[in-house]
From TrEMBL, chain A:
Gene this protein is translated from: Pank4
Protein name: 4'-phosphopantetheine phosphatase
Location of the protein in the cell: Cytoplasm
Stretches assigned to the Damage-control phosphatase ARMT1-like metal-binding domain: 467-776
Keywords for this protein: Acetylation, ATP-binding, Coenzyme A biosynthesis, Cytoplasm, Hydrolase, Kinase, Manganese, Metal-binding, Nickel, Nitration, Nucleotide-binding, Phosphoprotein, Transferase
Lineage, broadest ranks: Eukaryota, Metazoa, Chordata, Craniata, Vertebrata
Family: In the N-terminal section; belongs to the type II pantothenate kinase family.
Automatic annotation (TrEMBL), chain B:
Biological source species: Penelope pileata
InterPro entries with a match to the protein in the record: ATPase_NBD, Type_II_PanK
Organism ancestry: Eukaryota, Metazoa, Chordata, Craniata, Vertebrata
Family statement drawn from the similarity comment of this UniProt entry: Belongs to the type II pantothenate kinase family.
Subunit structure: Homodimer.
Highest taxon of source: Eukaryota
Pathway(s) where this gene product acts: Cofactor biosynthesis; coenzyme A biosynthesis; CoA from (R)-pantothenate: step 1/5
UniProt-recorded name of the protein: pantothenate kinase
Gene Ontology BP terms: coenzyme A biosynthetic process
Matching PANTHER family: PANTOTHENATE KINASE, PANTOTHENATE KINASE 2, MITOCHONDRIAL
Primary localization: cytoplasm
Enzyme class: transferase
Length: 790, 369
């Protein structure tokens, strides 16, 4: 299959750029000729096709969206406790690590031009191994036209689904599952995209789909929606009338014309009618009194650009006006816009947003969706997959396998605007467990996990992108080293390096490609890329070793703590928590120290810590609370690192809480990320500590200490996407204290998170730039004790 | 309500009302028929000439036209009996009109020229400098409502000013019938000139501007000029009356083969205005007449749609359409009647007035008296 591809990473999924990027040519991400033609590496576009089942296709006027469900074999690191009975514990590792194959579910979506449909169907036919698939769900205006072709080529029965039903099903799905799916468009801003926090309740909303015509649908629940109106003046009017007026045939070209035109040459403005009196009358002279009101003559020529612009204004304003009238009638203030008229085109998003603001006087918000083009395909797929209950699971966008949002500016990145010949991809992973809000969030709809929005903050963006670039070689090296027995590990590590490098370059140009750019999203993308190349847990051996060393010190640490007076002990416990936090392979400064000073111990870490007063210091209030207040009912602790942190920092702290009569829920990541302690590791660690310590032992036995998983595999923490079991437990145990530790969870995220109960956020800043920004130095301490105001 | 009951506060003749819109100027002129011999003797030459010029012609220059069929006869206005004449000419001929005013020494008549519409502001300076005339500028919407209420109250030479279409959804049985607008409130007033203004009227003094749209008569005419090369509204309307918009528009049935039952959309409904024009072949196969008709249908349906939504939001079920877009435009009126009736399931009624676009000018005249 030979297909034209645009050269930018952002378009046809990362893998393609892999072939394109000049070897070793860092930083120059293919700004060469626009029209390169390469032979497509098949595994980059129709990935995991062998195991594909449940196909769905959405054929629009010009683009085809293909969806399939497939299972992905992943290598996962598993830890398993040894049977230690009768063995020499001293010289054995703590536990066994094995890499196993795990099968996870993934949703693949590919968008391409209708021109390629035949080639693509042939390709699918040739590569499809799975034979249990008998039908393909189809939707979209073109489904009928291509029905015979699909049936012939694939030998599948085409099962047609209603367009609007699919669209809404898809819309509900992305609104519920994809963070930063929704954005508002801002015209005169550095960051045109204002991504919205996912609201826990997505209903009701208005969906205005601008295809050739306009459909206005009110969606009230998962299954209840109503067509409340529409208009025949839509994308087809722009295209059809535009083609007649300008002799320009293509939709995109018409938009290009429009973006260059002056509508005031064609439209009759209020000031054309009223003259200069507008100001004294308080009229806005620039408002359009009559669209095309100046072309009421046969004698004058009008430029194509001006006419296209006037037409665009006319149609956008009209749609905006009607949408506002419907929103008012139905008392709704959120309108999602979709359809080919919108589809990521900055010009139309701008005019629609303007119109909605104008007609609603700012009371209604025009919102757009990152995956708008895929809604129909997602919906059709869901229709066909009902027996798999996809809605019972939580899904997550796979940043490694998704192309991200196209650039908006036609002039800045012309090669990305050449939409023809591009393949756009979107992948979602089915998460093992359903994710929900932490019940203790003060206002779930206002909760923003991330502290710094890098889309907004150009300085911070530059810094962090460079930081991740500089750390990349080391990460790749470590990944390769983590699998010494694997022959292809170096090659895979290099592929990982390239892929993540390309993602970083994309994000330099289009920070909004995957929603709001944050340190968290950069970290998560790196984890996705590592997984993509089968490096499920590069730190597993390091963690194993550190856990072993730390366990050996546990008893002496406890003894020395127990010898202290109460007040001294409280301070030592906090210092222990903070010192454990210095051990963090995620931060470059620390990894440097650890690489060259392996003996860097717990005590030395403590000595590195900033002296009080700390950069953020509410320790006195915390101590007073412990002294004077009743014991907490239940504390929820989000743990950070393996080794010294969890064993010598967190567990002694837990032990003290237990002694006070406070129950403890200890939450660790479900999957590996950096050297963060995973849930399965925490189980083994707890078991080993219990064997040494009667307090922990009885607490585990009596279920006063509960070990749970967060549902996440991120070094950061999104309190709006947590394991449902955790949330249930938090409620049941009437949790009244939340402790979040570590830079990723307490600084990069949740620094400003407001909770309904008391909280403790503590971390050591191990990044000099960030420390500088917060007004401190490296190894500055954050100790933030917060009590919600009554 | 008859204005003849007012005490005869004589305004000096001539009695004019002027509405200067974006595209058209509307002029109403009261021709006194009860002029006594003495009055006639006293009447200055100028005034006589104006009266004769206006009443003896039906066309003025190459673009001015008197709508004779709209003339209101034997009217009593401020105690005077006479006829009300309705004259229009394009706004781009305003300079010529002002020039004529100066040549005929209009200013020597010491009359006040009451004017409304945006042009009252735009041309105020020109009136003053070129023909030494002081305009009395009046609010557009005030004049519009006053005009509508007045003309409706006096009737149309013994007939009803207001009418509607019975059985609008049945082309065979559809007919124009008089409507008694004796108790008019509340009503939604949709004025379709170059652009569209929509007002909710609750009483003579209590009304509000609800919304407006730039897709109006000017859009129809402007697009027709660009698409067909026509140069007059009449030409555009004539072409539209011979065209077939279904060749240009994509209908629901073109997409779904028939009705789209899921949404209760009939197959004949337009899904995408000009939607068929996305295809090159179809662009090449349509006539100018088809394009003119499609433009007319597009603009009309859109106005109907916005008016219907406003009526729903304002909780008003009578919608009165006025404005010069409806002149010689039965196609649009019937379509508006049909669309309102169909999409509201009979809840909304579309009403029309015989004097379409002249109410602003009438309102301005009434302000003079």
């Amino acid at each position: 299959m030979r297909i034209h591809l645009h050269t930018d990473e952002a378009g046809p999924g990362a893998g393609l750029a892999l072939k394109m990027a000049e070897r070793g040519g860092r930083g120059s991400s293919g700004h060469g000729s626009l029209d390169k033609s390469i032979t497509l590496p098949p595994d980059e576009i129709f990935r995991n096709l062998e195991n594909a089942k449940r196909f769905a296709i959405d054929i629009g006027g010009s683009l085809t969206k293909l969806a399939y469900y497939s299972t992905v074999q992943h290598k996962v690191a598993r830890v398993r406790s040894f049977d230690h009975s009768g063995k020499d514990i001293e010289n054995e590792p703590l536990y066994e690590i094995s890499v196993q194959e795990e099968i996870t579910a993934r949703l693949h979506f590919i968008k391409f031009e209708n021109t390629y449909i035949e080639t693509c169907l042939d390709f699918i036919k040739d590569h499809l191994v799975n034979t249990e698939t008998k039908v393909i769900k189809a939707t979209g205006g073109g489904a009928y036209k291509f029905k015979d072709l699909i049936e012939k080529k694939l030998g599948l029965k085409v099962d047609k689904e209603d367009v609007m039903t699919c669209l809404i099903k898809g819309c509900n799905f992305v609104l519920r599952n994809i963070p930063h799916e929704v954005f508002a468009y801002q015209k005169d801003s550095d960051t045109e995209f204002r991504f919205q926090t996912n609201h826990p309740n997505i209903f009701p909303y208005l969906l205005v789909n601008i295809g050739s015509g306009v459909s206005i649908v009110k969606v009230e629940s998962e299954d209840k929606f109503e067509w409340i109106g529409g208009s025949s003046i839509g994308g087809g009017t722009f295209w059809g009338l535009g083609a007649l007026l300008t002799k320009t045939k293509k939709f995109d070209e018409l938009l290009q014309l429009a973006s260059k035109g002056q509508h005031t040459n064609v439209d009759m403005l209020v000031k054309d009618v009223y003259g200069g009196a507008c100001q004294t009358l308080g009229l806005s002279g620039n408002l359009i009194a009559s669209s095309f009101g100046k072309s009421t003559t046969a004698d004058k020529e009008f430029s194509k650009e001006d006419m296209a612009k006037s037409l665009l204004h006319m149609i956008s304003n009209d749609i905006g006006q009607l949408a506002c009238l419907y929103a008012k009638l139905h008392n709704l203030d959120k309108i999602y816009f979709g359809g080919f008229f919108i589809r990521g085109h900055p010009v139309t998003m701008r005019t629609i947003t303007f119109s909605i603001n104008f007609f609603s006087k700012g009371e209604v918000q025009a919102l757009f969706l990152r995956h708008e083009g895929y809604l129909g395909a997602i919906g059709a797929f869901l229709k066909g997959a009902e027996q798999d209950n996809p809605n019972q699971y939580s899904w997550g966008e796979n940043y490694a396998g998704s192309s991200g949002l196209m650039s908006t500016s036609p002039d800045v990145h012309p090669m990305q605007r050449t939409r023809s010949g591009t393949f756009d991809m979107f992948e979602m992973d089915r998460l093992e467990r359903p994710l929900v809000n932490l019940p203790l969030l003060k206002d779930p709809s206002a909760y923003i996990p991330d502290t710094v929005d890098l889309t907004d903050d150009a300085m911070a963006r530059k810094y962090w992108l460079t930081c991740f670039e500089e750390a990349l070689d080391g990460v790749a090296k470590r990944a390769a080293a983590s699998q010494p027995d694997s022959i292809d590990a170096p090659e895979r590590a290099e592929k990982f390096r390239q892929k993540y490098w390309n993602k970083l370059q994309t994000l330099r140009q289009q920070p909004f490609a995957y929603g709001t750019l944050t340190v968290r999203s950069l970290l998560d993308t790196r984890e996705h890329c590592l997984n993509e190349f089968n490096f499920p847990d590069p730190y597993s051996k390091v963690k194993q070793k550190e856990n072993g060393i730390a366990l050996k010190c546990f008893q002496s640490v406890i003894e020395s703590l127990d010898s202290l007076g109460w007040e001294e002990r409280q301070f030592a416990l906090v210092k222990g928590l903070l010192a454990g936090n210095v051990f963090d392979w995620g931060a470059k400064a620390v990894s440097d120290v650890l690489e060259c000073e392996p003996q860097f111990g717990f005590e030395e870490a403590k000595s590195k810590l900033q002296e009080r007063p700390w950069l953020e210091d509410s320790y006195n209030q915390w101590l007073q609370r412990l002294k004077e207040g009743p014991p907490h009912k239940c504390a929820l602790i989000f743990a950070d690192n393996s080794g010294i942190d969890i064993i010598l920092g967190v567990f002694p702290f837990v032990r003290e809480l237990l002694s006070r009569g406070t129950e403890v829920i200890l939450a660790c990541n479900s999957g590996p990320a950096l050297n963060d302690v995973t849930y399965s590791e925490s189980l083994i660690v707890a078991e080993r500590i219990a064997a040494m310590d009667p307090v922990i032992q009885s607490a585990l036995r009596d279920e006063k200490l509960l070990l749970v998983q967060t549902g996440s595999s991120s070094p950061c923490l999104d309190l709006s996407r947590l394991d449902k079991g955790l949330a249930v437990l938090v409620r049941e145990r009437k949790t009244d204290l939340v402790i979040i530790e570590g830079m990723g969870r307490a600084i990069h995220t949740n620094y400003y998170a407001a909770l309904k109960c008391e909280s403790l956020k503590l971390a050591v800043i191990k990044n000099s730039w960030l420390a500088d920004r917060l007004g401190g130095k490296i190894f500055s301490v954050i100790f933030k004790y917060e009590v919600p105001c009554k | 309500v008859s204005f003849s009951f007012f005490p005869p506060l004589f305004s000096v003749f001539p009695w004019f009302g002027l509405d200067i819109g974006g595209t058209l100027v509307k002029l109403v002129y009261f021709e006194p028929k009860d002029i006594t011999a003495e009055e006639e003797d006293e009447e200055v030459e100028n005034l006589k000439n104006i009266r004769k010029y206006l009443t003896s012609n039906v066309a003025y220059g190459s673009t001015g036209i008197r709508d004779v069929h709209l003339e209101l006869r034997d009217l009593t206005l401020c105690g005077r009996k006479g006829n009300l004449h309705f004259i229009r000419f394009p706004t781009h001929d305003m300079p010529a009109f002002i020039h004529m005013g100066s040549q005929k020494h209009f200013s020597s008549l010491h009359t006040t020229l009451c004017a409304t519409g945006g042009g009252a502001y735009k041309f105020e300076q020109d009136f003053r400098t070129m023909s030494d005339l002081q305009l009395r500028k009046l609010d557009e919407l005030d004049c519009l409502i006053k005009g509508v209420l007045y003309i409706d109250s006096i009737g149309f030479n013994g007939h009803s000013e207001c009418y509607y279409f019975e059985n609008p959804t049945d082309t065979e049985r559809c007919q124009k019938l008089p409507f008694n607008l004796e108790n008019p409130y509340p009503l939604l007033l949709v004025n379709i000139g170059s652009g569209v203004s929509i007002l909710a009227v609750y009483s003579k003094e209590n009304y509000k501007w609800v919304t407006g749209t730039s897709l109006g008569g000017g859009t129809f005419f402007g697009l027709c000029c660009l698409l067909t090369g026509c140069s007059t509204f009449e030409e555009a309307m004539e072409m539209a009356s011979h065209g077939d918009s279904t060749k240009v528009d994509k209908l629901v049935r073109d997409i779904y083969g028939g009705d789209y039952e899921r949404f209760g959309l009939p197959g004949w409904a337009v899904a995408s205005s000009f939607g068929n024009m996305m295809s090159k072949e179809k662009r090449e196969s349509v006539s100018k007449e088809d394009l003119a008709k499609a433009t007319l249908i597009t603009i009309t349906n859109n106005i109907g749609s916005i008016a219907r939504m406003c009526a729903l939001n304002e909780n008003i079920n009578r919608v009165v359409f006025v404005g010069n877009f409806l002149r010689i435009n039965t196609i649009s009126m019937k379509l508006l009647a049909y669309a309102l009736d169909y999409w509201s399931k009979g809840q909304l009624k579309a009403l029309f007035l015989e004097h379409e676009g002249y109410f602003g000018a009438v309102g301005a005249l009434l302000e003079l008296l």
